[in-house]
Here is the input.
Amino acid sequence: MGGPGKKIPMNFKGMLQSDVPQGRNGKHKDIVTRILSDLDQVASGVALKVPLALLTDSKENVRSALNRATRKGKRNVATASDDTFLYVWNETP
Here is the structure.
């Protein structure tokens, strides 16, 4: 390829490692955090009614993100939905 001393051009820009964002804050973090916070406050047997119009993504994707968060937090949460709301509640073991 290139002779001695000839640099191959970089494909990507570099940055200081200390400037690299740490952690993963996905696009569902806000709504999932709000749902989990409310679930911590509701009485047993009460379901949250989350308007689908508030979701920034499909209810399926929000359900998946909620499922990942609840598994990680070892929580038992159930969901249901209709054309207007996503319903979420704490399941009792």
Residues 59-72 form the longest helix (14 residues). The domain at 26-90 is CATH 1.10.10 (Arc Repressor Mutant, subunit A).
